[in-house]
Amino acid sequence: xxxxxxxxxxxxxxxxxxxxxxxxxxxxxxxxxxxxxxxxxxxxxxxxxxxxxxxxxxxxxxxxxxxxxxxxxxxxxxxxxxxxxxxxxxxxxxxxxxxxxxxxxxxxxxxxxxxxxxxxxxxxxxxxxxxxxxxxxxxxxxxxxxxxxxxxxxxxxxxxxxxxxxxxxxxxxxxxxxxxxxxxxxxxxxxxxxxxxxxxxxxxxxxxxxxxxxxxxxxxxxxxxxxxxxxxxxxxxxxxxxxxxxxxxxxxxxxxxxxxxxxxxxxxxxxxxxxxxxxxxxxxxxxxxxxxxxxxxxx
Amino acid sequence: xxxxxxxxxxxxxxxxxxxxxxxxxxxxxxxxxxxxxxxxxxxxxxxxxxxxxxxxxxxxxxxxxxxxxxxxxxxxxxxxxxxxxxxxxxxxxxxxxxxxxxxxxxxxxxxxxxxxxxxxxxxxxxxxxxxxxxxxxxxxxxxxxxxxxxxxxxxxxxxxxxxxxxxxxxxxxxxxxxxxxxxxxxxxxxxxxxxxxxxxxxxxxxxxxxxxxxxxxxxxxxxxxxxxxxxxxxxxxxxxxxxxxxxxxxxxxxxxxxxxxxxxxxxxxxxx
Lengths: 299, 272
Fold this sequence. Notes:
B: 272 residues; 15 helices
């Protein structure tokens, strides 16, 4: 017992420490730790509404045979695999271009590219739904400049609907990631770039051999954040597709499927909790994998 | 000899950055123009100021109880923000100033909760709120958001820059621990509070999934929920929807333009 040995002053110190941290820890325990353990327990239960009984691994078996779940999982992974790398690379390129002090009007460019971050996920999804309407501004512009002959069915074709979700998320989050990179670039000594330039290292090589290695911790951080965000995708898809994840589940995400299982269909809390644990496991696995990959390259 | 290559690269740079900036801003322009056009014109891709602004605004105000909806949003956001800041700054200060092995262990465990996806919490939380009789109340929306590992982390990181001489001096003067926190720490750390305020307020103002589950009657709904339901009608009136999105975006837009430095600092939060 450290407490008893320390005596009066140590005890006073320790009691104060606990008093300061107790409200936050209590709330996190009650509204995060307790529910996450409860849903783990629930995932071994089955039944309708509140009448549940122990079902062992029945829910996990059901996952394998549920084509809608497989669809939602595939869609979510597609968003993650396609969107996160595009966005991170775009944000990195923009950050290194805008970090150049000789670029005229870079403050203005930065503000403009960061601006999407002020919109709510619902507001921008609604905007995108209107802009990508069959005869909407996007299709009519693309037709006017001759890029496409007939309107793209953004909201009704499985491929284009997925593409629209990816375009929308990239619009909303690229500036957010860029800000992290710009902040980290403040700590890079500009003379490194000058020396490399004088030695004749081309711009692209400076980017891949100086910028990216030096920003690795931040890139890792933003990748983990984006991964967690993408795996939980809900607001955008719900609002672009009237809550259905259509056309024919082509945009359905795991979170939206859980919502539908719980609040739209006949509620099956046990199975929905099992699907939610798929997200928990994926987030944990991918975070570990990303940290591992970042460490490997250090050696 | 080098000049044409240089010029080409400058054109490419400005062209690319300019295009990206334009694409980033365009939806905002489109939103403002949309509010002045009829729904048909909007989905037909009209890109010019129209004459239906007054009609759209009038329709929005008759379809939606605007003062009530804004009051609901503001109440939730302000309550959530004040409580989150109070609880998290206390904890951030406590973890950094009163270090012990056990608290450091709990702190690391707490950081693990950052990886918990909300989808895995919503069913238990919904049942908990149901049992407590809090469904369809604003308390139910606010309660689960107060304990935030991320904001505790942010405050702890910022507390590292808090000069401990101030605390020692105050102790010599006989101040109690809570007095040191309230009268010295809080004023000294006000820029940290400002940045955290912005981030928590925006998150609460824009929160969607949890309010969607908990708030079921029209009297309790927030602006975000109202826009979503207007836009998911079978034939949404886009002019009206645009008026709504402008009004919903205005508070965060204003915060962004008037407090840009704290805004960005809040976004970056953990990096330093």
